[in-house]
Amino acid sequence: MINNIKTGVSTFLSETGSGQPVSSQLLSTGPGKTLAEGFQAVILAAGDFPYHVIPLRILREADNLVVCDGALEELLEYEIEPAAVVGDGDSLSAALKQRYAHIYHQISEQEFNDLTKATLFARSHLQMDASTHIRPRFCYLGTTGKREDHTLGNISLMLYYHRQLGIDPVMVTDYGWFVPASGTTRFGSFPGQQVSIYNATCKELASEGLKWDAYPFQEMWQGTLNEALTTEFTIHADGDYLVYRTHQKQNKNKV
Fold first, then answer.
1. Quick one: pLDDT at residue 234?
2. Of 53-67, 94-108, 114-128, where does mean pLDDT reach its minimum?
3. Residue 7, pLDDT score
């Protein structure tokens, strides 16, 4: 069975001021729909606040926006109101706690970070159509930047949410997006798109449609900096892995 993340079939490319194509394929939801409608919840973490047009549009158009308490103050500077605020309370002023008391949910336990607390809250409290038996799709913003250990932890949580919580997470950054996957999966892309693959549990791993063939990577760096050749590529695998794709055809922020 081939899983399908063919959001690239209806890819549209928009132009930025730099003249570089920007992929919005992960947001293709059909004519007349907003970019955020493909997600049952949008969760904003307290990392670097997004500035790229794609995450900002998702943020502005989200109906079910759950905010980690450390991100609330900066969110309000953009005049965006959340549906819920979740956290342990150590990052929120007394004034904001009082102002948002009707939607503030303080969770003091320290087993999970605020991102997971917000995820569990959204999964438990927001209205979702359980009758369809379709995994809810959550979008994560503001999850990178600032402390590097938080960034690595948040990225790795995408696999945990996929495997343990039964959701399909999409982590969108200012440069691209991460999605977890299991087994053989087809991904939408565009020629020249930069692609990285991070192996989690695969003993068998191969690819079609990428510049360099994938294999069962043993180190995190081994699957990075690949490139899509056409409008889709396929990963053949017997386990779980994480895929990163860039918004732009060429990443000018390569280190």
1. 95
2. 114-128
3. 41
Asked whether 169 and 180 are in contact (CB, 8 A), the reply is: yes
Q: What percent of the chain has pLDDT over 90?
A: 66
Q: Tell me which DSSP letter residue 133 carries.
A: -
H/E stretch holding 125 reads helix 114-125
Between the CA of residue 104 and those of 97, 98, 121, 229, what are the distances in Å? 7, 9, 11, 46
**HSE toward the beta carbon, residue 255, CA cutoff 13 A:** 1
CB atoms inside a 10 Å sphere around CB 185: 21
Strand-by-strand arrangement of the 176-182 sheet: 104-106, 84-87, 65-68, 41-44, 137-141, 168-172, 176-182, 240-246, 194-199, 226-227
**pLDDT confidence of residue 23:** 45
- Identify the pLDDT of residue 118: 93
Report, in angstroms and rounded to the nearest whole number, the Rg of the chain calculated over CA atoms: 18
The reported pLDDT for the residue numbered 67 is: 96
Q: For residue 30, give every residue at least 6 positions away whose Cβ sits within 8 Å of its Cβ, in sequence order, or none.
A: none
* Predicted model pTM: 0.85
Q: Which residues, 6+ apart, have CB-to-CB distance to 196 below 8 Å?
A: 223, 224, 225, 226, 243, 244
Closest Cα to residue 189, out of 68, 12, 25? 25
Helix H or strand E segment including 168 = strand 168-172
- Nearest-10 crossing angle of helices 114-125, 148-164: 30
Cβ-contact 138, 169 below 8 angstroms = yes
Closest of 129, 112, 38 to residue 68, by C-alpha: 112
Dihedral angle sign, alpha carbons of residues 45, 46, 50, 56: positive
CA distance 153 to 248: 25
